[in-house]
Amino acid sequence: MARETGESGETKSAKVKKHKRRKSKKESKTRTVHANILYDHTKGVDNPNRHYANNKIKTTKYTLLSFLPKNLFEQFHRFANVYFVFIALLNFVPVVNAFQPELALAPVVFILSVTAIKDLWEDYRRHRSDKEINHLDCLVYCRSEKRYVEKYWKEVRVGDFIRLRCNEILPADVLLVSSSDPDRLCHIETATLDGETNLKQRQVVRSFIDLDCEFDPLKYNSVIECEKPNNDLNRFRGYIIHRSGKRDGLYKDNLLLRGCTIRNTEEAVGIVIYAGHETKAMLNNNGPRYKRSKLERQMNVDVFWCVIILLVMCLFSAIGHGLWMFQYGDKRPVFDVLSPEGTDLSPVVSAIYLFLTMIIVLQVLIPISLFVSIEIVKICQVYFIHQDMELYDEETDSHLQCRALNITEDLGQMQYIFSDKTGTLTENKMVFRRCTVAGVEYSHDANARRLAMYQEMDSEEEDCTSHGGTLPRRDSVTSHQSGKVVLRSQSTKSHRRTGSRAEAKRASILSKHTAFSSPMEKDITPDPQLMDKVNECSSQMEFIRFHSQSLNQIPPDLCDVFDFFIALTICNTVVVSSPNQPRQKVRRYELKSPVKTIEDFIKRFTPSRLTSGSNNSSSSSLATNRSSSHKVGCSMLSSPSAENTLTKLNEEKRPEHDLQHAFSPVPPNFDKTKALAQDECELRFEAESPDEAALVYAARAYKCALVGRLPDQVTVELPHLGKLSFELLHTLGFDSTRKRMSVVVKHPLTEQITVYTKGADSVIMDLIRPATDDCKGKRQRKILYKTQNYLNLYAADGLRTLCIAKKVLSKEEYASWLQCHLEAETAIQRREELLFESALRLETNLQLLGATGIEDRLQDGVPETIASLRKAGLQIWVLTGDKQETAINIAYACKLLDPEEELITLNADSQEACAVLLENSLHYIQAKFLCNPRPDPQAARDYAGINFSSPVCSPASSGHSSPFLVHRLGLVIDGRTLAYALDKSLEDKFLAVARSCRSVLCCRSTPLQKSMVVKLVRNKLKVMTLAIGDGANDVSMIQVADVGVGISGQEGMQAVMASDFALPRFRYLQKLLLVHGHWCYSRLANMILYFFYKNAMFVALIFWYQFYCGFSGSAMVDQWYLIFFNLMFSAFPQLITGTLDKDVSAETLQELPQLYMNGQNSEEYKPYMFWMNMIDAFYQSLICFFIPYFAYVDSDVDLFTWGTPITTLALFTILLHLGIETKTWTWMNWVSIGFSIALFFTVALCYNASCPTCFSPSNTYWTLQRLLGEPIFYLLCVVTPIAALLPRYFYRACQGTLFPNPVHVGRQLDKLPMDMRRIFLSQSQMKLGSLGSLFPPRAPFFPLCRPFQKDYRPRVKQAHMSSTKQKEKAISSPIPSKSMEMRDTPLSSKTSDNHITLNFRMQEKVQSCRQGSDGPLSENLHCVKEPSSPATGTLTRTKDTPASRTVLDSTGLEAPLSPTDLCPVRLLTSTPLLPQTETMQLTTPPSFFLGQKLEDEDHSNQKSLLKQARDVDHSQSTSCLQEHSLKTTFL
Amino acid sequence: MGKKQTGTGPLSRRPDNSAFKQQRLPAWSPSLTAQTVLPTFYILSLVCLLLGIWLLITVKNTYELKVDYTNAGTCERCFNLRKHAIDSRTACTCSVSFYVPETFPGDVFFYYGLRNFHQNLRRYMDSRDDAQMVGRKNNLKAPSSYCSPFDYYADGIPIAPCGAVANSMFNDSLTVMYNPTDVLEIQVPLYRKGIAWYTDKNVKFRNPPTNNTFTLQQAFEGTTRPLYWQRPVYELDDTDSNNNGFINDDLIVWMREAAFPNFKKLYGVLNRAQGPFTEGLPAGNYTLSINYNFPVEPFRGRKELVISMVTWFGGQNYFLPIAYLVTSGLILVTAVVLTTVYVKVGKKGKNMEE
């Protein structure tokens, strides 16, 4: 190897020289790092590293000196500030000035200083944390002392050698040159960077791998050339050039990033490459995002109107003044003061001057403090959202994060939600569910039962906690704990519950690192059949191995089973570690690395080595040595029974001597005591993705356990065979384009070079070797066919499918491939592309082994959340990268799709096909829903779930002529078709179709498509969009949407980083939107409107006065009051109201999601409301002006004695106005209003009593004091506010009585006592009827419930019964019976063809798109109504039902009506490989969860069942009654 | 903040369960519906009605009399004379007779009224120097720039009191004669002092410091009278030497700028110490003799004498009682409307509650 590189090194060094010369020219391209120790004075001029940033970080924006100018400069970026400063400066011009110039500066200075203080404080906090970080210690090599010395982080410089110990945090970006790890690895945890808690391996630079002794910095004399600092965490390229001229590539695997933590590695040494601000972590560190909310956009329009009003007022005054001057002609009246120069001013000139003066006087109209107030209120809102207990997730100890501070109110106006599926709707906790190997399905029934148990446990636990929730709030903490206590006592009673998720929760709280390994995922109950096969297989293998027979003697299916599990175990990147101890590895006697060169390959694969390799003792001893540190860590299930899965893994402890005597020699540095200490701990698998871990755990359940992974070797422990080491030749990592990953290994038993591939079924199936005609081929075809069938079944069950395949390479094949691959690997340009191509070349002609189905469980509360969000008028689209079938079934499971509703599926192969499909769908929709007038529109609406002039569309409909209807339709579109549909020519049609569907499901969509869909909807429909997702693939969509929400789940933090809000769970979205969104929106909208009103009202007072002072710009309100009125006297109450006001309580908002439409339709702040408020403001100011005017007219009153009462009256009126608008009065409201009034009088009294000469030219000495002694002042104070507020008060009272909007009704609900309200909400028809009927007619209502046929859980039987009773009651009332009829027989009565069939031919391609539909639905309706009817006979279940069926019968529960049973989904798969599956009728339940539930229901005790049933009954009857009541009352 | 750092337990980031943080502060949420609002309406209406009636009765018993003397009686000549600034130095006296129909009982206030005189113009109002008016020596000689152009004469002598307001001071002197019979003429005695605010007289307006040897005139040495004035400020009142300088009551009253272009300012209060005036101002014929100095023609203004009684809430003004009565009526109307609404839709509202 050395020889080879030496040779090529010669040529390379020449290149380097050339390169160096070139480099000097284009310095900017790269960075060269020398070691600092080569240079005496590290700070000297000759140090080539001196230009690079040092490691001192300074995230502060300002220094002491630069603070003022810089902060001011930044603040003046805001236009409003510039405007106000301009006005203040205008005051310094004597001809136009209105106020004492210094005073005029006061508000601007005040606003600027408030902001400045806020900035200063933030900056100071940054400064403190910087200081803390800068003064952390690390070990830096010191040349003079020839050892590592402690230094502060800030003293670290580029080119320094630093030594890192385990669990230390990296101070800078460091190139790894040495590691104590025998494999020259270093493990780091990157949680602080990307939130991924799994360990990542980093490798020592290749040139230093071979060093035997400890790395000595003094001997280092290489030069590193690498990229300029950039912010791409996943990219690093460069070379290291040794003195010898040898050049080695550097990759991201060699770089340790600042902020990461060293794990599992005793010691590592590295050279600093990037320091301080040039580190990737710092470059990635951008501050919070700033967006402008919809409300603010609307507000800005109105601010603009305010400017217009201001200008009109000023212009009016100016003209008035000109005319006034003009009327005196040449004779100047005695009171007309000449200009200071003593010259006359012509009317025109003085009009112009006056215009400017008026701008100053009336400046308050532009609400200077509005911007600051909004900021304050938003910060408070964010604080409260942060503090919400209900948005706190105990399991992860995380709560909601608001990352964008200024769009809280947008949350209240969302119209479309775009959701990712995996990890967002589902938990992204992958659980191995079933598999098929060699065409045989293993259903893992026991496993299914076990999983069901967890599920049941969860719901029970929720019951407990929800009981706690009903207690008074204060006690909820304790009650919660008591809930837990109850739980524990239960768990002692019934053994099998101990391992429930509650336990898992507790466990995961204790150790954060168990993110992927809750017991639910880890414990897999093996299928007995498969277990038998595994055992048989391995025993045969053992036999064969000991007798040195050929492996061919094993039957092919057993062989497949064996390979299948090997593939599961090794085809991944899972790292094995034990949780307590850092991995301590034994230095290997011979060092091997993955094949890197051809020579290496040839050397390694010479026959002699192969034979020696087959000597099993050597290979297994190798394995043992390596794994001896965790020794007994490999845990094995002693029994596969479900009973034991909950307790800790029952570890089969092997006596230590067993191991030792079996494998000699014992490594010299092996520590027995340590090993003993480790006895207890189990192995931990750290995987990059949860499905990998799930598969590894599954394999372990079959005793095929992964026990160690090294860069070049994977060790697997097998029954009978013991530990087997697979030489890992290559790992071709997973990427989203290939959708698969492969490993190339040398099989220890067969010595064949084997490729194991694991990947998405659609991809793998295309890569399967075409079957030959012989009998082997036949078998393979059969396997293929069967597997495909099972895959479809899995998908129909909502399972994630993966195919496992293998391929055996001949040595020649391998050699030729290796040649290319190595070229690709060493390529400098286009390395990624070449590697990709190389991988493609390898992964062909595979042999299918089997497939797995992994279940991704729905998160808690997802269906409920979706239901209530939908009731709130939100359109929910799911954009997922998953398969169509999986996605559809998850959609059914989370109630996104309704079995009752029709499904339009768009799958097109070409642009034209897509166009035709869209056209036809559109026609179909129009034909069905629009051009088909129904006799009874009410019924039609009811039936189809149509929402006339849906709120979702109504804002958009401004641009479109007719309001859009949202039908009870679902649209499913796949990625390819989506690509066509998103084309410019088709996007309008696509939108037209999509928007008329209730739910849209985009499968197989790429991240880019996701963002394109969001963009399309947002831009074309002009709606507010929210995107929610958890993974890196959702980032683009999150960024495009108006509000991006990240789920801080398991797929790292990228989504969270890009998001505006980060939630721990999907279900929190409900409260975030329905409650906080609604509140934030209504608070802010009301506050903004109030602000406009307040300023207009106050300013108008002064404007009216201009008619009495010759339009001269004088004001009866003293300048002090004028300036501080907004800033101080009237500021606090509105802030309090803007922060705390609750129009409807949180409970009601959640119970009646319809109230959310208030925000969607922007009903709190419509454009006309601005003008209404303006008119009201002008009316009120007229009253406040003219009542005092007429009261004082013709008297000897002086200006300020008259003006001060007006100010007081205005203050009272404004505060009382706020009082009318305030919906909830807490003590803070009272205090703030009292404070405002007190403040005004205090300030005014002090001001009027202080210096009589200081505030020239105005002089209000003793005015207020005198006024307070005059009765007329009080008389005015009584009558004026009453007269001014009478209209508004009257209007509000009328509104509350005559035409209350839903919010009013919700508020009235709030006033009822708690228990009463609950009763009303759940039972009273009248109540909700009135609610429904009170919706303004244009405000559409979404069906308050969905028909009760929806919930098919057997435990709901009672609910059905009761709701049927209710229904009968409803029917007995005369009117609604008709609509009931309509609903009961909606589809069946219509026609029998509920399938939408869009068939058409195009270029001989038949694209047909069938509808999942509801044929037997009516029958099922019957069985809901008449529980005894034998409708269950129509159900067809494919597997494992008989047992459970009998159980079901015995428990006397009604036959399960799972939604799929009702509607066999017809799917036309277009997989080109499988022409025979043209029409496949799937009769499996689409959601296996539901089916699952049926079974575990039996096992649960009757009591809990009843309770659940009651609960469901509750909600059921509620929702149904809501619908009824809409018609039953007030008709 | 500190709390967050100290808690490191498994649930350390759990928010506090306090009423404030969970937004569960006890709150009163009034709902504005007919039945909640109606009582308020009726009560308010009643209150306003009662107040209005009370005020109305009070106002009914007050009298006010205005005598416009701009060009009435013999003042036509003076009015024309004052049209031209050239004749401003020539004195002019005239008289106007008027009839008081009813006795003004109690205290009677005499005002001079000006119409169309904009004392509330912004630049006019600013044109004064309060610091000078409190008698500060420095400001006396160096008036504030606000007074410009009435701060210095062209030759640089400062003006005291400076500014347009002082400069344009009303300088007619009025004498009211009571004519109980055709022959008899009794001068109506007026208090010409104590007509300004106490605080003005004692705090806002002070003379420069004087003592027995250092007279007021000496104190004002080096300043000159305003352009339009006939006498210097220290000789404003020739009858009472203590009423001179900045603390002259007429000056103080004038300096308090009126809010509206039509205003009146207190001239004197009836001295009820003697004669027929002990009970107030008796009904009968009166003559007003005027020392006519103040020109009003240039701004089309009017001058008048206003004789008025004062009630506990001000002068004779019918507006306030009417305002109360109208407001009361309006509230009543809305209340009635609401009541009908309540009766008609009330049942629904009730249902909502039940």
> Beta-strand percentage of chain A?
5-15%
- The overall average pLDDT of chain A, rounded, is 70
Give the biggest beta sheet of chain B.
5 strands, antiparallel
Q: Given the helix and strand composition of chain A, which structural class is it?
A: alpha+beta
Helix content of chain B: 25-40%
DSSP, total strands of chain B? 11
Q: Estimate the mean pLDDT confidence of chain B.
A: 87
Distance between the termini of chain B: 46 Å
- Taken from the alpha-carbon principal axes, the silhouette of chain B is extended
Assembly context of the chains: heterodimer
Order of helices and strands of chain B: HHEHEEEHHHHEEEHHHEEEEH
- How much β-strand is present in the residues of chain B? 15-25%
Major beta sheet, strand line-up of chain A: 16-35-34-33-17-29-32-31-30
Protein chain pair with the most extensive contact, residues per chain: A-B, 103 and 103 residues
* Unreliable spans of chain A: 1-27, 458-517, 580-597, 605-681, 931-963, 1324-1531
Number of domains of chain B: 1
Number of continuous helical runs of chain B:
11
InterPro entries (chain A): ATPase_P-typ_cyto_dom_N (IPR023299), ATPase_P-typ_P_site (IPR018303), ATPase_P-typ_TM_dom_sf (IPR023298), ATPase_P-typ_transduc_dom_A_sf (IPR008250), HAD-like_sf (IPR036412), HAD_sf (IPR023214), P-type_ATPase_IV (IPR006539), P-type_ATPase_N (IPR032631)
Protein name (chain A): Phospholipid-transporting ATPase
Transmembrane segments (chain A): 79-97, 103-121, 303-328, 348-372, 1088-1108, 1170-1193, 1199-1218, 1230-1250, 1272-1291
Biased composition (Basic residues) (chain A): 14-31
